[in-house]
Amino acid sequence: MGRWFSQLAALIEFNVRTLPKRFGSAGEEIFGIAGVVAVLVGVLSIGQGFHRVMTETGSPDTAIVLRSGADSEMTSVFTKDNVDVIRTAPGVARAGGEPLVSPELFVVVDLPKRSTGTSANVPMRGVTKNAFTIRPELKIIDGRTFGWGKNEVIVGRGALSQFSGTDMGSELSFGQNRWKVVGTFEAKGGISESEIWADASVLAPAYKRGNTFQTAMVKLASAGSFDQFKDALTSDPRVSFSIKRETDYYAAQSRVLRLLVTGLAFVVCSLMGLGALFGALNTMYTAVSARSRDIATLEAIGFRGGPVMISVIAEALLLALIGGILGALGAYLAFDGYKTATMNWQTFSQVAFAFDVTPALMISAILYALVIGLVGGLFPAIRAARLPVATALRKA
Amino acid sequence: MKFVGLIFSNFKRHKTRTLLTVLSIIVAFVLFSYLAAIRKAFQMGVSVAGADRVIVRNKVSLIQPLPQSYQAQIDRMDGITISSQASWFGGIYIDERNQFPQIAVEPEKFLRIYPEFVLAPAQKQAWLQTRTGAIAGRKTAEKFHWKIGDKIPIMATFNRPKSGNVWEFDLVGIYDGIAPETDTTQFLFRHDYLDENRLYGKGNTGWYQIKVKDPKHAEELARRIDETFANSPFETKTETEKAFVKGFAEQMGNIGAIVVAILTAVFFTILLVAGNTMSQAVRERTSELGVMKAVGFTDVQVLALVLVESLLISIIGGAIGILLGWFAVSAGDPTGGALPIFFFPPEDVIKGVVLIILLGLITGALPAMQALRLNPVEALRRE
Predict the structure, then answer these.
(1) Cα torsion for B181, B183, B184, B187, to the nearest 10°?
(2) CB B264, CB B28: distance < 8 Å
(3) Are B368 and B289 in contact, with CB atoms under 8 Å apart?
(4) Chain-chain contact of A342 with B253 (C-beta, under 8 angstroms)
(5) In chain B, where are the structural domains located?
(6) Do A18 and A318 meet the contact criterion of CB atoms below 8 Å apart?
(7) Integer Cα distance of B250 and A342 in angstroms
């Protein structure tokens, strides 16, 4: 057994040392695999980034109340009386006796994108004071918050970076209403950062919403009180609500884009994987045939087929690993943090997000590369182990 | 004929390598087909948007309505053939995962404005006669196995009906698209039924679709419409349909552009790798080419021999790849419905053929010419 391993070690060393001489064909495998990995990581980081925005937003002890049947804030609507029912429901957290319920309006406004100048549906939220209590992560990073009862707005960091006219001090005009931008806020990278916020009581008449709201955000006494709260409201005959945890609600919102991205990634990466596999096979067959004489010589002086085979596979894996790491790093440098905005089809409005290359993503891409390397090395390895010694020696 | 034998013996020299090269090229061109389809999908039908159509919507945003009273004023304007109200319905069919656009329109006018939505005359008649009638595009109808005569229940979201929570429609027709770009995922029903049965929003329309007499004056007409309604409580924003659809596609952001860019890079990477192998196969035969010249082959003959060989490889691989890609793309989009328009645009076949030929020429010609530049004696000495 010890002999077996020492043979293997000697062979691997031999292979690695001769690698630079076969730079051209080895480069083909590295290049091909680096490409696959870079693309895999790049495409998936789009979905990852979008998903991150959606999941950073929610908090498990916050519930979102929509009208029954509505699948998003955009399509929901209920009256002020309904809000009173929510306020008295069990399980709602209170601050100083006041139930922490935030009825909100959600509309979209037309603003040009900074990148293309074409118009985009930018989400605008009308809020009440509780909105800030319920979202403690929201912080003003520039200027101040809007004045209650005034035509003033604050703009999320993401919205500021993606849409024109949202700079501090500028005036936005939607229809016949003018709004002054008085501040910028951040919300730990959550979806609120893509929004523009104003006082609900000013936004409602401007959008002819009368005494209605679209959603209510509710701070629960604890994450565990969700069921109690939900059951009480769904069995209340006065109202007809659909109630979700905020985390679940936003996770569902990223479904379409994730579907799109993972579907594309699957097709692209299986095709590219095949392409890279053929490249790897080619490389390793070339490597084996270029060394057929050396291998035969080794076998003639007593090296066994097993170590020869494994040494070829090891070489293929090494090349795949180099390619994988290069590709993952390349993707990280090229894509990570790249800011963009896209349409959230569920609410028909824009979400600003950044591509997110996570370590987990990079590692799974490198594993994929290793699988390609393994398969790419296996068949040539079998051929190497089976080389008829005499014929190979006579060659060339 | 002796050349054919020569070419084939060259193929057989490295059977595995030839096979792998052909396989790589196949993969590259399957990818090419997807690339073409994806690029088309992200354009969202900009190329088929009618030049003779304009869209009037609320200036504040698409979700704000316009009064129906505007229609009479619009119809009186010069240069307008016909207009139809249209409203986004946004309901849910059984499960919120089942997404397809539901739009209320004025049937007669709509079908005149959108001749690319092809509906059998009898079905059209049925639609005009059935207040609760609706038509669905072929793709959506097939997806949910709908037949004409089916009752389609759609749960209301913001368009609440007068009683209950569900709207029931009678499927009276299934429309086809005149071109593959036509969106056949829509579910269209009557605006008068929407108005009659909804609790809120009576008298409003989401937007207006307008057919203009002369596309050349569409922009000017759009300006006139917006001026007419300026400073009213419902100001309008009017654009040609092309601009409207393009704006909509832009809302997806540069994700489409990025994906296309990535795929293009991949495609060329695979070609580069395959091309390199093909060139390699010629380069290592330098001395042989020398021998051929020494025994009397002319430069042109040798070059032709090499070119035919590399062209054959790229044509076989490319043709199989495009064919496979075509089948794969026709089988449906890989995202499970996120891209409503997904097909292989026939005009891209030409692009593919050009690429295939270029690949064969370049990979064969460059190394062959290098080899030919050597004089036979030197080429022979190289061994």
Answers:
(1) -170
(2) no
(3) yes
(4) yes
(5) 2-44+254-381, 49-251
(6) no
(7) 9
Among B335, B339, B341, B342, the residue to mutate for chain A (most A Cβ within 10 A): B335
Residue A365 contacts residue A40 (beta carbons within 8 Å): yes
Task: Give the pair of three-digit tokens for residue A161.
Answer: 């970076």
| Cross-strand pairs, B175 | B137
Q: Average pLDDT of chain A? A: 87
B62 interaction partners in chain A (CB closer than 8 Å)? 108, 110, 121, 348
Concatenate the DSSP letters of all residues of B235-246 into one string.
Answer: -EEEEEHHHHHH
pLDDT for the residue numbered A299? 84
Confidence of residue A17 (pLDDT cuts 50, 70, 90): confident
pTM over 0.90, yes/no = no
Nearest by CB to B92, from A39, A71, A207: name it. Answer: A71
Q: Determine the straight-line distance between the first and last CA of chain B, rounded to whole angstroms.
A: 29
Residues 6+ apart with CB under 8 A from A160: A166, A167, A184
Phi, psi angles (nearest 5°) of residue A63: -110, 150
Burial of A301 (0-12, 13-18, 19+ CB in 10 A): exposed
Please give the C-alpha separations between residue B142 and each of B137, B174, B261, in angstroms, as whole numbers.
Answer: 9, 10, 33
Is there a contact between B44 and B342 (Cβ–Cβ < 8 Å)?
no
Binning pLDDT at 50, 70 and 90, where does residue B127 land? very high
Contact A149, A199 (CB under 8 A): yes
CA distance B164 to chain A (A): 11
CA distance B188 to B284: 65
Residue of A nearest to B89 (CA): A75
Q: How far is B20 from chain A, CA to nearest CA, in Å?
A: 6
Q: Is the dihedral of CA A371, A375, A380, A384 positive or negative?
A: positive
Contact present, B171 and B188 (Cβ < 8 Å): no
* Residue written as token pair 């090395």: A377
Mean pLDDT within B109-136? 95
pLDDT band at B302 (very low <50, low <70, confident <90, very high): confident
Is the pLDDT at B378 greater than 80? The verdict is no
B149 torsion bin: left (phi>0), alpha (psi -120 to 50), beta (else): left
Q: Which of B176, B189, B171 is nearest to B91 (CA)?
A: B189
Q: Which of B24, B61, B262 is the closest to A39 by Cβ? A: B262
> Does residue A306 belong to the interface with chain B, where contact is any CB pair within 8 Å?
no
> Whose structure tokens read 């059951």?
A231
Give the CA distances from residue A15 to residues A26, A286, A319, in Å, rounded to whole numbers and listed in that order. 11, 13, 11
Work out the angle between the directed axes of helices B347-373 and B286-294 (0-180°, nearest 10).
Answer: 70
Give residue limits of the domains in chain A.
Answer: 2-55+255-394, 69-239
pLDDT, position A110: 85
| Ranges A87-101, A363-377, B193-207, B340-354: which has the least confidence | B340-354
CB pairs under 8 A between A and B: 166
Distances A229 to A66, A80, A90, B81, B249 between C-alpha atoms, Å: 14, 19, 6, 56, 41
AA identity, residue B106: E
A contact residues 249-278, partner B, Cβ 8 Å cutoff: 255-257, 259-260, 262-264, 266-268, 271-272, 274-275, 278
Residues of chain A in contact with residue B24, where contact means CB-CB under 8 angstroms, are 275, 278-279, 282
Check if the beta carbon of residue A355 is closer than 8 Å to that of residue A337: yes
